[in-house]
Amino acid sequence: MTKSLCKLSRKQIADGLGDIHRLVAEPKFVCRSCARSSAERGSLCKPAAIPPLSCQNQLSERQSKLSEALLINKHLSPQVEDKSLVVRRVVEQVKQKAQKKTSIAPNELHESFANHKEIKNAKKALKKQYKQQKKLLKLAKKTLKLQKREAKLRAGLDLGKLISTGKASVEVSKVH
Question: What are the entry keywords (predicted)?
Fold first, then answer.
């Protein structure tokens, strides 16, 4: 078996099955392009060493710690929901105040200063959302433009093929 496992055809695999079984029984290498495994480096087109079990156990411990950290972050997500509720409440208050448009009493003046920070945060969140939507719109326009350009190029290639095949048929007919 001089060829790498990655380049074997089905017939070659069937013929050298015993040899292949010996190679893949205890793999030490894996191919980076096609994910085949083997005990010998030379039998793969892009071999990468498989780490020993001790290293794999360390990785699994790290992974478990990361999963625990993710679970903790999931418990923190209700705070994000609370922030969105605060923003909605502030927006509603702003709408109500805009509808009233009456003179502000001294008690309400103190209340409006307390809500000033919440209003500022709500405006900031809305501005951020607007910017994100603007970026998405820009990206959508760009992808549409690229799709049009690709379609135009494909149409040009198809037309070029038709023209070249048409000339060939005309030349053949002149020869006969």
Answer: Coiled coil
